[in-house]
Amino acid sequence: MAYETILYETRGKVALITLNRPKAMNALNAQLIAEVTDALTHVEQDPKLGASVITGSDKAFAAGADIKEMASLDFVQAYVGDFISPWDRVGQMRKPVIAAVAGYALGGGCELAMMCDFIIAAESAKFGQPEITLGVMPGAGGTQRLTRFVGKSKAMEMVLTGRLMKADEAERSGLVSRVVPSDELIGEALAAAEKIADFSQPIVMMAKESVNRSYETTLAEGVRFERRLFHAMFGTEDQKEGMDAFVDKRTPQFKNR
Ligand code: CO8
């Protein structure tokens, strides 16, 4: 697939997906959604790739769903066409995905960032769910994920008033893992992705699966799930390699087995 709304490149074991509709503040239209999901499917299928980074421009990670494309949608088109469901691909990724956010991450843009495994923000980042100002509400997980990130009070205020949250507040509230100077954003995100991609891929995938399980189940069931995966790790060559390397005082060479 030739991409027109994103830039896609690989750097070693890491894929970098750059949302690229500069005239529309990276608004998320159907073509962009198709291209991002195609790129992520490629990442998932390529054994050489271990992680990806999704980013936008200095001005906007993404200013939300494309309002001009969405405005005339009717209920039957939205329902039968299962509007928004293609985005589920991001949350279903088994390999880690990092969002590197500068500028506006609004509406679907904020939701896209939250579908990723963690968010690294530039000082310029602004997060918000302003859908209420358009006569709708978040539709790609915003009411659910934002609440889990920042708690009910802040999520409710943002969803009901459309108030934006700047980077420092987003870090204080747990929405982003850390804030970095704007000119270091991509470098920091790629470095984190490279670090992850150098670890054992099956172990990374299990760790991600286990953390995500905490959203879906009780503490007791989550701990049981974690324990089963932890036991399973002792059936991998990479566990032997990792622990042998520690004992031998050398760097482990993981083989993804
Ligand atoms: N959709 C379509 N076009 C957009 C969007 C958008 N979301 N955001 C900006 N643009 C366009 C503008 O129309 C403008 O185009 P033009 O030059 O042709 O008039 C261009 O981008 C530049 O925008 P501005 O002139 O407005 O730039 P400013 O710097 O003045 O303002 C803002 C930047 C604050 C980001 C402003 O553009 C804005 O408020 N945008 C809309 C933000 C918004 O309401 N987002 C929520 C959209 S609804 C949504 O996301 C529902 C989620 C459903 C799930 C989606 C699946 C992921």
Automatic annotation (TrEMBL):
Gene Ontology terms, MF aspect: enoyl-CoA hydratase activity
Pfam families found in the cross-reference section: ECH_1
Classification via Gene3D superfamilies: 2-enoyl-CoA Hydratase, Chain A, domain 1, Lyase 2-enoyl-coa Hydratase, Chain A, domain 2
Keyword rRNA-binding: no
Catalytic reaction annotation: a 4-saturated-(3S)-3-hydroxyacyl-CoA = a (3E)-enoyl-CoA + H2O; a (3S)-3-hydroxyacyl-CoA = a (2E)-enoyl-CoA + H2O
UniProt entry keywords in alphabetical sequence: Fatty acid metabolism, Lipid metabolism, Lyase
GO biological process, one term: fatty acid beta-oxidation
InterPro entries: ClpP/crotonase-like_dom_sf, Enoyl-CoA_hyd/isom_CS, Enoyl-CoA_hydra/iso, Enoyl-CoA_hydra_C
PROSITE patterns from the UniProt entry: ENOYL_COA_HYDRATASE (PS00166)
The protein's Enzyme Commission number: 4.2.1.17
Job of this protein: Could possibly oxidize fatty acids using specific components.
NCBIfam families membership: PRK05862.1 (NF004517)
Entry's family note: Belongs to the enoyl-CoA hydratase/isomerase family.
Protein name (Swiss-Prot/TrEMBL): enoyl-CoA hydratase
The organism's taxonomic lineage, starting at the top: Bacteria, Pseudomonadati, Pseudomonadota, Alphaproteobacteria, Hyphomicrobiales
